[in-house]
Amino acid sequence: MKPMNAHPLDQFRYCPKCGSPRFGVRNAKAKHCADCGFTYYFNSSAATVAFILNGRGELLVCRRGKEPARGTLDLPGGFIDMDETGEEGVAREVREETGLTVARAEYLFSLPNRYPYSGFTVHTLDMFFRCTVEDDSRLRADDDVAESFWMAPADIRVADFGLESVRRGVGIFLNNLQTPTI
Predict the structure, then answer these.
(1) Is 180:171 a contact under the CB 8 Å cutoff?
(2) β-strand partners of 133
């Protein structure tokens, strides 16, 4: 594991534009090539998370089928593709992971996250949406989801969610169900 004070691009040793090994730290979020002048800024990747309630007020929960945090609880969501809006991205991720079709996606809030992937820490900005689906009876588990199921909010333990931002987001969502502001 790399130290917390390491530059986020330490694993990138060569300039992605010209291949020069003279690709060094410019500041806390950028590296600069001394040969071609290219500067790469390390920015957050956009990701989505979906809160979906059924007619009984139960929350759709998934079990992660892959690392990171394999086997822990999660919510449908994932990285936004190029040229996608947040609403399009959350709808696509919900469809890919659960088979459900999003009829409406309402943005709620965002949280920063660090997502370990293939030995690299991806900094993300996770956008949380409250989604309404067309027919919740078509629920299935697919893509990187091992299992999908409905849980009563009273039965949800925030600590069972494996990803930091999702734990925090579920906590916010559940607190707001108690005192409706979402």
Answers:
(1) no
(2) 102
Q: Which residues pair with 91 in a beta bridge?
A: none
Cβ(62)–Cβ(97) below 8 Å: yes
Which segments of the chain does DSSP mark as H helices, in order?
A: 86-98, 164-178
Answer whether 133's CB lies under 8 Å from 50's CB: no
Q: What is the pTM of this model?
A: 0.89
Q: How far apart are CA 115 and CA 173, in angstroms?
A: 21
67 flagged as catalytic: no
Return the SS3 of 168.
helix
Show the low-confidence residues of the chain (pLDDT under 70). Answer: 1-7, 179-182
Which value, in Å, is the radius of gyration of the alpha carbons in the chain?
A: 19
Q: Domains of the chain, with CATH numbers?
A: 7-42 (no CATH), 45-178 (3.90.79.10)
- Active-site annotation holder among 67, 106, 134, 147: 147
| Per-residue model confidence as pLDDT tens digits over 112-154 | 999 888 888 889 999 999 999 999 999 999 999 999 999 999 9
